[in-house]
Amino acid sequence: MSLETIDFDRLNIRPGDRLLDLGCGEGRHSISAYLLADAEIVGLDLGLDDLRTAKNRLQDFPMPANKGGYCAFLQGTGHQLPFADDTFEHVICSEVLEHIPNYTSFLGEIQRVLKPGGLFAVSVPRYFPEWVCWQLSDAYHEVEGGHVRIFRASELKRRIQSLGMKFLARHWAHSLHVPYWWLRCLFWNNADNNFWVRHYHRLLVWDLMHRPWLTQTLDRLLNPFLGKSVVMYFRLS
Prior knowledge:
Elements: E1 18-22, H1 28-36, E2 40-45, H2 48-59, E3 70-75, E4 88-94, H3 103-113, E5 114-125, H4 127-136, H5 138-142, H6 153-161, E6 165-173, H7 177-186, H8 195-210, H9 213-226, E7 229-236
Helix pairs in contact: 4-7, 7-8
């Protein structure tokens, strides 16, 4: 069970498709994509520890003997992707660009390796919930590897469209996570021991594991107003 931000129904991954999960972290989207289809999945990240975790998580899932495709994890940077032009039918870049000073370099490489007609799914923190986090805690965005910018979705959308990608759809995700991060930022110096932070985290874990009707419905209803992430989908012309 993993927390997915990208809606795979919108990607329509088919057997034999190639998908790049750029900035895959611990592999949540890479593994989910591989479980959904007999596709060729590549998760790429700069962090070796995260990649090791991703490989170990993949091994936890029993695969049928006739399972097609593969799921591989590679170390690399999005500034210079180690792939030929027009390699992938799909590219995912989820909760990554806010960490990258020169994020336009990533977008250029994504455009290069995506096949004409291919789909690009991107998510970044939504402006208002992220802005509140920055107001509550400087350390939240000043830690090494932290967020270097707050995106306005409209600006990111225009930047991606300027690369010849057609905007298809947008939605929001993880509204129930917003109060957790506000609490964590408010009590940043002692967050791990704070009563409210610990108990809200337990609620989120319980929701992830059991997916009860009440919290799942509440999350969907609140997402348009308070979703933590904005998710957009594009097709390369």
